[in-house]
Every structure is written in structure tokens, then in C-alpha cells.
Amino acid sequence: MTQSSGTRLSKRTFLSESLPAVLIPPVIFTGLFVALWTYKCLMTVVFQEKIIYMPYMPPFARSEKIADYAASCRPVEWREERIRSIDGTKISLCVGSIPDARLGPPDVGNEIVICYLQGNGSSSPPRLPLLSQVLKLLNASGGKASQKGIELDAQAMLKWVAKNFSSNAQLFVWGQSIGAGIASTAAAHHVTQRCTPRIAGLILETPFTSIKSMLLALYPQKWLPYRYLYPFLRNHWDSGASLRRIAESGADPVEILLMPATRDEVVPPEEIEELERICKALELRYERKNILGALHTEATSRREGQQGVAEFVRKVTNR
Length: 319
Prior knowledge:
- By secondary structure, the protein is α/β, with parallel strands linked by helices.
- The protein is built from 12 helices and 7 strands.
- The relative contact order is 0.11.
- The chain crosses the membrane at residues 21-39.
- InterPro entries: AB_hydrolase_fold.
- GO terms for molecular function: palmitoyl-(protein) hydrolase activity.
- Keywords: Membrane, Transmembrane, Transmembrane helix.
């Protein structure tokens, strides 16, 4: 019994015998800090799609239907169109239009098609009333998240547009927040591949330059792990690179609308300044409309933002 107790005692006092008592708490604290820092780095890299796209927010959003919002969308009528993405994944499009017997069928070459790519969180049905407001102002027709998959989905949507509308249609691609990155990437692919109908306008609502730039902007503290994780990113959504591809394509010019919210609590103001600088340097045709006092998700929930999009579309189509 004496020998066994002595063995346990020596094991229990190994740390205290190796280090002065005053150093034991700092060593334990430092070890816990390093372990937590490493754990957060690992989890951020492994679950980056969950963090970026937030498919679980808000709760029950995925169970909402177009019919739930039909009354608040009138006179715009929405329907679900099910298609397959380039990789075979089943996806659904929300297709909206304003039926008007007096107008008759649209004239060939006078069709206006707006492809909307939403930001993260939520689902399409809750955003339909907002989109309906823009359409009413225009009075015109209109699996698992990953960058690769979403790029294929956007391409499939544009292929569906090409199949169902005239090659002379006026096509606009509109993206909000991370959707602006998706929109610019889709537009760059469409333009460089010389697909039809040609993209007349690109609308970037509360955009950022890239995921990497957002990491550095949101976490400037050098002791935090996040700013060092961009080499491990699987999702980049680099609008700056996409704008350069559009400029270098040699295709017909694409009109660009930059629409930041002046009180954006998510995207720092330096991001829109950088995108504007890129547009100027590339000599792209662009305009900027600030939505005064709007937060990140409020730019087009406000009348000023809705009118800004409608006026931009009208101006481009009338040229």
C-alpha cells in the first residue's frame, strides 16, 4: 500500500516538480488557448459552407411556399419551375411575370429578363414580395451549398433563360450580398462564353470584393485565426476577378449598378470603394447608387432601392 501510494503521489506531483508553482497557471492557460485557437481554425475550415451560406437560417424558411406570399405579390404572379443543374442536381426557379391582356405577347427583342441571386440565409419565397415591387415599378415581365455547385446552378438558370426567351431579350443579372458574388461570376462566365441572350446589365446590391477581402476586413486583429485561413477557402466569390474577366472578354459592354447601403453593418464601406476603383480602372460602364440609412438587408426593401433598380433597368433597355 505504501509503495502504491508513493507511485500515485509521484505522478500527481510531476508537473509541480518540473515547473515552479508560479508558472503552472500560465502554462495551463496558454495550453487551453492554443487548443481552442486550433479547434476554431479546424472547425472554420471544415464547416465553411455552413458558415458562409447559413442554410439553416432562419428556422423553417425551407418549408415556405410561393403560395404563402401570393397575396402580397399581386399583380405579379409567381410559379415554380423545376429544372436540373449542369451536374444533374434538381433545383427550382421562381418565375414571375405581370399578366396583362392589353399588352398581348411581348415583342421579340423587347423582352426583359431579370435573374435574381439572393444572399445567404432564408429562401426564395420570402423575397418574392420585394422582387414583385421592383417588377411593378417596371411594369415588365420578367443539394448542398458550395461554390462549384452554385456556379453550375446559375449557369443552368441562364441556359433555361436562353431556351425560353428570345436571343434578343434584355438580360439582367442581379445579386444581393453573397449573391452579388454569384451574379458577377455567372455574368463573367456567360460573357466570356458568348452565350445568348447577352447580358445588358449587372446589378450588385450590397456587394463585397471577395470572401478573402471580407475575412481581412472583418477580422483585422492579427491574433485571431480567421484572417490566416483564406488559403484553405473552397469558396472565393471574387467579384473583382469576375469584373476583370468581363472587361477582358472583348464582348459588348455590360452596364453595372453598384448599390451599397450606407449603414451596412456586415460589409465594410471599403469593399464598395474597392469595387468602384476596379470599375474605373477597367473602364467599365457603371453607376453607383447609395441607399442612405439602409442596413445590409434593407437596400431594396426601401422604396429608394426599388426605384433605383427599376430606373437602372429602364435606362439600360431604352438605350
